[in-house]
Design goal:
35% helix, 18 strands, single chain
Length: 482
């Protein structure tokens, strides 16, 4: 089943809340932080190491995140380059290393957790909230330590220079995607924010030119409908894509710095095998998505409208081509093979979310050392060999949580409707058992397994299906041909 993003909007008080809390226990996930970790976090919050930070508080940074987010990893300030065409991107990344002592209790706990885990009704953080939502978070009006990237672009949006240094920064405003989109659409955004659209579009053009692709996968939302709840898709806003392009730009710049110095850790993705692409073509046919044989996959994706239900469903299926992504470390001057991330179509690394992902702290340190012309800290180099395995395990756990949450929410919201009929598309059929496959319901926004028929499923056809299993106890939904 492809990965699906899920969020809860106003449904936290329904019976789902208890089921989601029980899921945390069932999956044996990290619980409360140990006392020694909390004590170290409190001490670090009071006295971070700011000895190497320059003062950049004169730059009016802003953050763009979901409205309720308080673990703010990134802040930006965009401007036109003086004396010529092009732009300068100032991108501040939370400096987690200013608060963590290598080998200390906080560091060890971060290696145990690896990533922040997200549930529809909350999260299990990588770092204690006193840091991740407080002293290390780039909250508005607060002076914070950061790894400050300065990336110069030419008039076409190509990166021509990048460096990163430690700095103290202060965000002036905490913005959300919907508000940013309104300002950009109405023409009321001041230039530093208005440039997000200009730079974002240029970077999207650069992405097309190098053969990359961004999947603007719609989120599944739990929404209130009268006295009950349902599932619907929420298409991403253009501003979300432009914001993501700034993060991608920084990850590519960081990967180049690592490649130049011969030490680093890359986010890699091999080219999808022919069989996976063929399966995706079958899904496109099933969902009435036009994909001529001479048209590349990336071009098809860029033509999709996420507000259309069949296009939204196909974007969900497209995430299957991201399987195989991983982390590869190198420290001998030679790039690994493969070194490129197939979807980015370039060298790429994760470095912009250190409050939520372990590897980003190490990537920042490698790039800071590279810019300064110094050797990486010994604690970074010593951790490199084990990081890919740690990140793989943490990513696997995060994916398990995501799948379990989606399955549970779908099963809970369809409880009491066993026996009802629904309109669906057959989007996949198992080769070894053509009576078993996957269907995508038109309403509600659910993807589920179908089995129990005697005839092969009609791939690409609309099918009337009957719900045969649902409810929190089963934690999954199952359909059969009607």
């Amino acid at each position: 089943m492809p990965r699906r993003h899920l969020r809860m909007t106003g449904a936290a008080d329904c019976s789902l809340g208890a089921a989601l809390r029980a899921l945390r226990t069932e999956l044996d996930l990290p619980g409360a932080f140990p006392p020694e970790v909390l004590a170290e976090a409190e001490e670090a919050a009071r006295a971070p190491d700011l000895s190497a930070h320059e003062d950049a508080t004169d730059l009016p940074f802003l953050t763009i995140d979901p409205p309720t987010s308080t673990d703010l990893d990134q802040a930006m300030h965009l401007e036109r380059r003086r004396g010529g065409p092009g732009f300068r991107v100032h991108y501040a990344i939370a400096d987690v290393a200013a608060f963590l002592r290598p080998g200390g209790a906080l560091d060890a706990e971060a290696h145990r957790r690896v990533t922040t885990l997200y549930f529809p009704d909350g999260r299990i953080p990588l770092h204690p909230p006193v840091l991740s939502e407080g002293a290390a978070s780039l909250l508005p009006g607060e002076t914070r330590p950061a790894a400050l990237w300065r990336i110069d672009l030419d008039g076409d949006g190509r990166a021509v220079h990048a460096d990163v240094t430690r700095a103290l920064v202060r965000s002036r405003a905490k913005l959300d995607y919907a508000g940013v989109q309104r300002q950009l659409d109405s023409g009321t955004a001041e230039e530093p924010l208005a440039l997000l659209r200009d730079i974002g579009r240029l970077r999207e053009e650069q992405e097309v030119a190098r053969g990359g692709i961004s999947l603007n996968v719609p989120e599944q939302e739990i929404v209130q409908r009268g006295g009950s709840y349902g599932l619907a898709y929420r298409a991403t806003l253009p501003a979300e894509g432009w914001n993501a392009q700034i993060s991608l730009l920084t990850g590519m710049a960081a990967a180049r710095l690592m490649a130049d110095t011969g030490t680093g850790i890359l986010r890699t993705l091999p080219i999808a095998p022919d069989g996976a692409v063929a399966r995706l073509r079958r899904s496109a046919h099933a969902l009435r998505v036009d994909w001529p044989h001479h048209v590349p996959y990336a071009e098809v994706v860029r033509s999709l409208d996420p507000t259309k239900s069949n296009h939204a469903a196909f974007l969900q299926e497209c995430t299957t081509l991201l399987r195989g992504a991983g982390y590869t470390a190198f420290d001998d001057g030679e790039l690994p093979d493969p070194a490129v991330h197939a979807a980015v179509a370039d060298l790429y690394t994760h470095c912009t979310a250190p409050l939520r992902r372990l590897v980003d702290r190490y990537a920042s340190e490698l790039c800071l050392a590279a810019t300064a012309g110094k050797e990486p800290p010994s604690w970074v180099r010593e951790a490199l060999p084990a990081l890919p395995k740690e990140m793989a395990e943490g990513t696997r756990r995060a994916n398990t949580v995501e799948r379990a949450c989606v399955d549970l929410v779908e099963a809970a919201l369809l409880e009491g409707r066993v026996g009802e009929l629904f309109d669906a598309y057959v989007v996949d059929v198992q080769e070894r058992d053509p009576a078993t496959g996957t269907v995508h319901l038109r309403d509600p926004a659910i993807v589920g397994r179908i089995e129990g028929g005697t005839a092969p499923l009609p791939l690409g056809e609309r099918l009337r299906v009957r719900l045969t299993r649902a409810g929190p106890a089963s934690k999954t939904v199952l359909f059969a041909p009607a």
